[in-house]
Design brief:
alpha+beta; 3 helices; globular
């Protein structure tokens, strides 16, 4: 699995911040385990389908253990998972990376 992952500590309401951010950025919850784990998937749209490869799906995962968090983002293709960095990153996926960088900025984490 190739994912872009951040581990960090925070006393802020990170889960709440991410919930609001995902609503504003077109994500929906696809898996949830209480208040400590959520998996989001970007909702499809005709505009997005015309801009990126139709088979690509965009995911964001957040888990919490006390004040420690793990945030992962990736792109799922028909055959694999791709991180948001590296040689396999395709230019048509830049809008998703830009969205994730906006989230990282809110969380005061380094951009990718």
């Amino acid at each position: 699995m190739a994912r872009t992952t951040f581990e960090f500590a925070s006393s802020d309401d990170v889960m709440g911040l991410i919930r609001v951010w995902t609503l504003k950025n077109g994500f929906e919850i696809v898996e949830k385990e209480g208040d400590n784990y959520k998996l989001y998937k970007k909702k499809g749209s005709l505009l997005r389908a015309s801009l990126v490869r139709a088979a690509d799906q965009y995911f964001l995962e957040i888990s919490k253990n006390g004040s420690n968090y793990t945030l992962s983002a990736w792109i799922k293709t028909i055959t694999s998972e791709k991180a948001l960095t590296g040689a396999l990153f395709h230019a048509t996926n830049k809008p998703y990376r830009k969205q994730i960088n906006n989230l990282l900025n809110l969380l005061e984490l380094p951009k990718i």
